[in-house]
């Protein structure tokens, strides 16, 4: 019963919509109505700038990291075991379908998943992050970098934990889930239509949210 409570608590923690709150606190707007409409790091970067994006990423990653790291000790179940992994998956689902936004308009799960796997398997996650950053800075395409990092993660887990481990199976599942949430991006990548990422706000992006009231929209 305590483990079930931990999983439910992880979902609630995962549901905290930090990108949405950043838009409200910094500009008084709902980021679901601007840019890509996604409550993730990329949309925050484009609309609110790099400092806000870094903070939002860290907070979203912490939603996955902290339950997996702390709840086994608090609720007395095995670290890195099935219930700890279930807490991580619940946090990711909370990020994608947030309770506090009535299950509407969450992120794609990459940041929260990275926090989960940093707690479960830091070495494989560092390898995934390295490939993510390499693709991000060489192609300036966030979706391609995210998809590459998701593909590398189960390979790293296989090398460090073995293909028979529970963590490997979960890594495969999460990678597949990331590809599913990025299916529209994959279509644009195939057509050569996926936009490049700027590491600072463009005048167009800045003008989309600057000076607007909570009800305003460009």
Question: Can you summarize this structure?
Answer:
70% of the residues lie in helices and 0% in strands.
Describe the protein:
70% of the residues lie in helices and 0% in strands. The protein has 218 residues and is mainly α. The protein folds into 2 domains: 1-107, no CATH class; 121-198, no CATH class. It is globular. Mean pLDDT is 87; it is low at 211-218.
List keywords for this structure.
218 residues; mainly alpha; 11 helices; disordered C terminus
What topology does this entry show?
Elements: H1 2-14, H2 18-27, H3 41-48, H4 50-75, H5 82-96, H6 110-120, H7 122-139, H8 142-161, H9 166-181, H10 183-191, H11 203-209
Helix pairs in contact: 1-4, 1-5, 2-3, 3-4, 4-5, 4-6, 5-6, 6-7, 6-9, 7-8, 8-9
Using DSSP, what is the number of strands?
0
Class by SSE composition: mainly alpha
Strand content: under 5%
What is the number of domains? Answer: 2
Radius of gyration from the alpha-carbon trace, in angstroms? 17 Å
Provide the helix percentage: over 70%
